[in-house]
Amino acid sequence: MAIQWYPGHMTSARKKAAETMASIDVVIEVVDARLPEASTNPVVRELRLHRQRPCLKVLNKADLADPQVTQAWIAYYNRQEGVRAVALSCKKPGEVARLPGLCEALAPHRSENTKPLRMMIMGIPNVGKSTLMNVVLKRKLAKVGDEPAVTRAQQTSLLDVRHSITDTPGLLWPKIEYPSDGLMLAASHAVGRNAMIDEEVATFLSGLLLARYPALLAKRYGFPVDASEHLDAVTVIAEIARRRGLRVRGGEADLERAAKTLLQDYRDGLLGRISLETPATRSAMLAAAPAQTAIPQPAPDNGLPAASA
User: 194: Cβ–Cβ under 8 A, 6 or more apart, which residues?
Assistant: First the structure.
């Protein structure tokens, strides 16, 4: 299953973002801390590099991600030129309040009152850009919702006399190159419902959880501790249906409802703190990509990057 989702409004949003990029100082790129690279839009990288704009990489939803993996990603991004990374949760205003100061460090030429710092929030749909905007401004200005692509137009606001901030619509890119990226994005609710089949996405997710977080899966659904030894990605969905009493007419397991249950539990953080990729697994995926003919099953991993990553 190749997941692609690029609504028409994103083309105009991309053009508008390119125009605005010329008049801002720092890009605040918001990504999902559970899948930082899969949720990094290559179009955003292309636009900011073209304009030579520094980037504050915000790994949002850090409260849902594996903390040790998140620290590995912070180190990974901080090694990149012109990039500073920070992990936070928009649910914690105190963490969000640090952002203007971090942006100032990336654009010291804008530290005077006569030259207000101009910041621009960018990222894919449903990673929390508008929530971040509202928390920074300490008022509800940008519309938010639990669906991708709620924001459809840019909004610029003055934070104070020294800072302005522009919120932009969520942008995906015309073609998602790696199938596993599309599945991670779909599992994390970054694409529209019409672009995905819940059972296929949930099967991908269950396979990854079996390989990397079997204890969390067992705890949530009452599986045996050694479930990974006798279950596979498909039978996990059926077992969730059985244990939750999810049946269709006739008594058969309701796999669709079970798939939606697993996806929603992951999105809500009810499974525990989970990261879908690490620097090491990302590197391995890219190395295997040229010869890749199908979506690989996740290799056993404890969620931590390899020492060589």
Answer: 5
